[in-house]
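Journal club prep, notes for RB
We'll compare a predicted complex against what the paper describes. Inputs for the KE4 case:
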Amino acid sequence: MSDLKSKELFEAAKKRMPGGVNSPVRAFGSVGRTPRFIASAKGDRIIDVDGNEMIDYVCSWGPGILGHAHPRVIEKVKEACDQGLTYGAPTKREVQMAELIAELVPSMEVSRLVSSGTEAVMSAIRAARGFTGKDKILKFKGCYHGHSDGLLVKAGSAALTTSVPDSAGVPADYTKNTLVAIYNDQDSVKELFAANPQEIAAVIVEPVAANMGVVLPDAGFLEFLRDLTKQYGALLIFDEVITGFRLALGGAQEYFGVIPDLTTLGKIVGGGMPVGAYGGREEIMRMVSPDGPVYQAGTLSGNPIATAAGLETLTMLKEDKEIYGRLEEKTARIAQTVRKAAGEKVSVNQIGSLMSIFFTPGGVTNYEEAVGSDLSRYTDYFGYMLDHGIYIAPSQFEALFVSDAHTGDDIQKTCDLLQQYMEQL
Ligand code: KE4
């Protein structure tokens, strides 16, 4: 597999863009390879500028649950384009989106569309602070909630690989109200609430962590957060940017039966176009301008092209609820292949269409165990898969995503390669 054209483009890109990319994880920084510059994608396949066709398990970090360039989504986007790209005025599709979001995620009685997951989280935090009149936010080490200043504290995702879990350029004043607990460690949460009994506006959590690799909530952990936040008059925010519409049609809150006060969405909600959303209990969301005093705005929020893609994607997921059974079956097949071939040498976390392989025995249930895994082995595994035409996350601290477009043959090809690799560990 030549990557000559990618190499040339990367050199040019590095001259004019930080790291040659528009988002750090794309730079392949932690796996020591040249990032593949992509020319096109269709279904479960992605094709780079050197013509290498690969089976894609990044799926654009989550939006691609239906696979790339689904004909129905493309058709709606093309139709929308002919009607103009943006108006800066309300449209019918935004009403349809808000109504469909409320139908699929009933806790999101009132919602607002924005243009990214970061914007959704930043705005939800502001609404929580505005509603409660409190300043502190509690997050979990290794969870990633986008790059807004107050949340770049012990963040996950690429912040872990670029060793800036506490980013430069963020004044201490901006993060003094950010408390950090340990995922799955109830005592660490209780201690922070006991020390700040009346000051915590909200707890924000990835209901399934997917930015330190995939780490599942221990049984009862989400229920514990729900009860404790109620006890202290704090809000519970589920960051469902990854799990939303992926773990179930109603997201992790449907899957686990734990209902937050606010939810943030991204990725799938836009069907591949730039859309984020935040929403929740009506009394909270009525705080948001122009109903209330919490200001938040956006030129391209609810953009007609983006909502065309998002609406068609959500509509297709609603029409075909069997998709979630298919996604679970495919992904569990991959996970079981690895467990069978590698035995105790690796830890595999899998739920629905999300999974991670950690090269460490004994299981991974939190940040320390994730970062303690053998990262150089991950790099070797990444290179092996890439050289054999399988495109997986270029970082241990991301997820492997499966889409409805992943064919049985491609899943089998993936399993065969994984078995070969894991058996020689
Ligand atoms: P965006 O601003 O990237 O749309 O969403 C931020 C965000 C918020 N919450 C969660 C749980 C997220 O996973 C993300 C973004 N996810 C990363 C992948 N781990 C996006 C990939 C990237 O940064 O390029």
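Talking point for the session: The CA atoms of residues 118 and 146 lie 4 Å apart.
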